[in-house]
Write a structure and sequence with these properties.
P-loop_NTPase; Rossmann fold; binds adenosine-5'-triphosphate; 34% helix; 213 residues
């Protein structure tokens, strides 16, 4: 799979933003297997870009393509198909079900399109230090714990691209590194690409391409 950006610019941005960015208003093709780091200071449009790439919002000029297909002409079913098999995401605002336990949140996702057996949930949760939270409602978990749940959830499905919007904002370095290692392993297992948007450079992400938004 490829993701192509052709002259993409949020419709609420001034035209001049094209000239200040290595992404907005540019022609870019991201390939499966690449690790793309987007350095995006607050307000530069990190969440806008991630939402456009996932097809959740469409207020932009220019075109975004999955393979050769233009997202402007996608139906709800087209997006559902890509999100099921090809694109996974960790939202900045996580979007867990607050009244469901951690395990329920993860198992619900796993069952939609199983890539891993149920035991993998326990294994991943233990690896990221939230094994003792599996029976806790997600709203009771700290934000850093919820962030790890959202990371694990993103890894329970097949994908060609993993989109990350500031996934470590509430994690210390040690926990961030553990989560990164797990994501890299899972990406490798699928020969998938990662698009990682964050406020600054993160040393432990082995990017192959780096862009300033
Ligand atoms: N639908 C919209 N209409 C108008 N302006 C918007 C819209 N969505 C976002 N913006 C503005 O665009 C800018 C970028 O927003 P966005 O949330 O994409 O930034 P961000 O880089 O993710 O910021 P942060 O790191 O602070 O979360 C902000 O100034 C925001 O107010």
């Amino acid at each position: 799979m490829t993701i192509t950006l052709q002259d993409v610019l949020p419709s609420y941005f001034e035209e001049s933003r094209r000239h200040q960015s290595e992404v907005w208003g540019k022609q870019l093709v991201f390939n499966k297997g690449e690790y793309i780091k987007i350095v995006a200071p607050s307000g530069s449009g990190k969440s806008s870009l991630t939402h456009f790439l996932y097809g959740m919002r469409h207020e932009y000029n220019g075109n975004l393509l999955y393979d050769k297909a233009n997202l402007h002409s996608f139906t709800v079913e087209d997006f559902a198909r890509y999100r099921k098999d090809h694109i996974s995401i960790v939202f900045q605002d996580l979007r867990l079900f607050p009244e469901q336990t951690v395990r329920e949140n993860l198992e619900l996702k796993r069952q939609l399109n199983p890539f891993h057996p149920p035991e993998k949930i326990t294994e991943m949760a233990e690896r990221l230090g939230i094994g003792n939270k599996l029976s806790t409602k997600s709203r009771i978990c700290s934000y850093g714990e919820q962030q790890r749940v959202a990371i694990i959830r993103s890894l329970l499905q097949p994908f060609d691209f993993l989109l990350l919007d500031e996934p470590f904002s509430h994690l210390d370095d040690n926990n961030s590194k553990k989560a990164m290692e797990l994501m890299l392993e899972e990406a490798k297992a699928r020969n998938a690409g990662i698009l990682f948007a964050d406020l600054e450079r993160v040393d432990f992400f082995p990017w192959t391409r780096l862009y300033h938004l």
